[in-house]
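Chapter summary example: a protein plus adenosine-5'-diphosphate.
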Amino acid sequence: MIEFRNVVKDFGDHRVLNSANFTIRDGEFFVLVGPSGSGKTTMLKMINALETATQGDVLVNGKRVTDYNLRDLRFDVGYVLQAGSLFPNLTVAENIAVIAKMKKWRPERIKQQTEILLDKVGLSPQEFMNRMPQDLSGGQAQRIGILRALITRPDIILMDEPFSALDPMSRVQLQELVVDLHKEFKTTVVFVTHDMTEAVKIADRVCIVHDGNIEQIGTPHDVTHHAATDFVAKLF
Ligand code: ADP
C-alpha cells in the first residue's frame, strides 16, 4: 500500500531522514513513534506529497506520489491533524461534509452518512450536526476531525498526534475509538505519536524513529520484548 524506498530528506543542510526503507501493508494500523524532532511528521507528509523526498521514492499503491495528480492523491489519503483543526466558521455537519462535497457527493448522501457516523462515535446527530466547533470539547472536536477524513472512505488515513491536546480520559476513549473504527473500515492508518504507551496500545506494527533513523519496526510485542537497538531497549 505504502512504500518508502531509500528515502532521504534534507531541509537545507540539515538531514532529517536517513535512507528510510519500509512497507506499510494494506489495512495495517502503522504507528510512527519517537521523540519530538525525530522526523515522524516529515515522513507522514511525504505520503500525501506535502513534503517531497530529497532522494528516493515514496510509493502509494505502487505509484510514486510525485507521479500522482495531487487532487487524486489527497482524495485517496485522508489527513487528521491535532485537535483544533476544524473550520471554526462551519458547523459540525458542514465540517464533516467538506471533502465529500469536493468529491461531488449529493447532499442527501452526505447527510445520511454523517448521521450514521456521528452515531458510531457516540455523538447524537440531532444534538451535534448544527453545533459550532467552539461549542465542542477537545475530544468531541477530534471525533469530528476523524469523521471528516473517514466519510469518503479513503484508502489511507494519516493522523498526526491527533490526541496530544486531549485530557487523559478523552485520550483513552479516542484511542479505543480509532482502533474500533479501523477494525470496522479496514482503512490503512499511519499514526504519528511521541507517546510509547499510546503506540504499543493501538498499533499493528510500530516504527521507532530517532534522529532520522529507523531504529526498529515490529509488532508491539516485538518492540517491547525484543528490542533491536539500545535506544529501543531504553524506551521500554
Ligand atoms: P517529529 O514529527 O518527529 O517531531 P519533524 O518531522 O516535525 O519531527 O521534524 C524533524 C526535523 O526537521 C526537526 O529538526 C524540524 O525542526 C525539521 N523540520 C521540519 N520541517 C521543516 C521545514 N519545513 N524546514 C526546516 N526544517 C524543518
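Key point: The chain has a mean pLDDT of 94.
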